Amino acid sequence: MKLNPYNIIIFLGCLVLVILSLRKLFIHWKSNKIYRYFYGFFITANLVIIQVLLMDFKIHKFQPWILMLFLPFQYLSPVYLTAFICYYLKKEEIYNKNKLYLLYPFIGFFTLYTILKINIIMDYAWISKKIFTIIHTEIDENSALAYSIILSVWCLLIILRYENTIGNLSYKQVKKKTKWIKTIISIFITFNILWLLTILLFFIREDISGHFPYYPYWILYVLFYYIFFFLGSKHLYKVSEDNKIEAEQVQQAIESFQMSGLNHMFTEEELQLIHYDAPSQITGVLSYFSTSLFDKHKLEDVLWDIVENCISHLQLEDCIIYILDKSKGILVQKAAFGNKNNGERKILSPIEIPLGKGIVGEVAFSGTFECIHNVSNDNRYIVDDMSRKSELAVPIFVNDLVVGVLDSENSQEGFFNENHIFLFQLIAKLTGKKLAQVHLGSTINITDDNLYFKELHFLMKEAKIYRDSNLSLDSISKMLNISSNYLSQLVNKLSETNFSDYVNSFRIEDAKSKLKDSKFTNYTILDIALESGFNSKSTFYSVFKKHTGLSPKEFRN
User: Fold this and answer.
1) Using CA atoms, how far apart are residues 38 and 33, in angstroms rounded to an integer?
2) What is 251-297 written as a DSSP string?
3) In this model, does residue 527 exceed pLDDT 50?
4) What is the end-to-end Cα distance of the chain in Å, rounded?
5) CA spacing 20 to 30 A to 216: which of 1, 25, 283, 524?
């Protein structure tokens, strides 16, 4: 087929879109996989049309090697679209679980294309020209159409399932989020039908040949691609920025509460250092640390909790707490994380270090921390379970007297940095405060002004985290960087109810406000239940009846 205004316009339109997509892909490659699949779809989908048009332009007669670059992108573009939808809806596990199966058609036809190319080079030695034509014009296209239809319908089902599992978004937000993507899939299904009708035209009209009948279809496709490309890019940018702003606001609120929650542990000067010099990881670890120790009243429980639940958060190779035995003048290993404990609360082959001997003994004697970047150059280094390269040892004080040492070693030279030193000093201070409480037999009571409970209340009331039907004690404790046991005690004491009833009380209030609001008259009771965070109608009815004495239907009427 010769060059004409139609195929030139289509070719240039597709080529420009491929170039724009490649540019965007390069910019966003490291930011999020959703962008890779979004722009990957446009690249592969338009390359399908470009390849066909290049055949029409007879370019292979001038440069036969170009055929070697032709790939079955028609089996790859619907896969990228499916991946984009899954990642956009945060259901990437669906795509990742089925990824290999989705790629089978592309892999199969890539292998077939390779064989066919070699066959052409060898002058149709294996497969005759007639069979090659059937494979290239009928089997290839028909199977690509069938595959595109199957994945388009599957994508629609994924979206519909997503609307029923909502996550932490409101039902109204979910509908808004899925409306445009459902429209896209519906248009693709329509285009697949047009594709099918075009194929049927060849069977009905035997006098028609070539790709000219596809031109109107391709022009519509290209126009749609441009609209989808620009509006989709704009939408993804807005969603990305909104998510960043929302995440930053919630994170700032959490960090503010965490800082306030450490008031009883540190001086004002120390808090200023934590706030301005320390990363958010430090405030999170300290918050978890202080709450994890809340219900520990024995020396052994305190020490093991420190090394297991706090130091391990920093992904260190090992950590050991030594306690000073004043009568003997030695430091005794009391708790360990790493090879020394082998996963049990028992130290394997514990060693004792005389006061003033080795790096640990020197720290206990001087009361000053030591950070050794290369212990092989320090003759004080004492090998414990195995020889390592660097060591950090920080003294633990109670009433201005050294009672122990917090020690960690690493096989990497120069591993410990300023953040490690700062955090170890803070944890050592918290340990000293807790050991003093254990010695005196005193406890810290949960009071009505507890800042962690205020933080929880803020997240419930302002961030509306109760709308997540999968919300649990563990997920909230990780969000707040406090222990789940402490969170459970907080809720039980200050709300005078259990965790489940506490969360459901917010969900019920949310549902009640919507049942009374005229704006939600078109919502079914199930819609309101899902929007409020319940995952089933039966659970919603039973909890609503428990809290109000009425059924949702009676309350609405």
Assistant:
1) 9
2) HHHHHHHHHHHTTTTS-HHHHHHHHHHS-HHHHHHHHHHHHHTTT--
3) yes
4) 70
5) 25
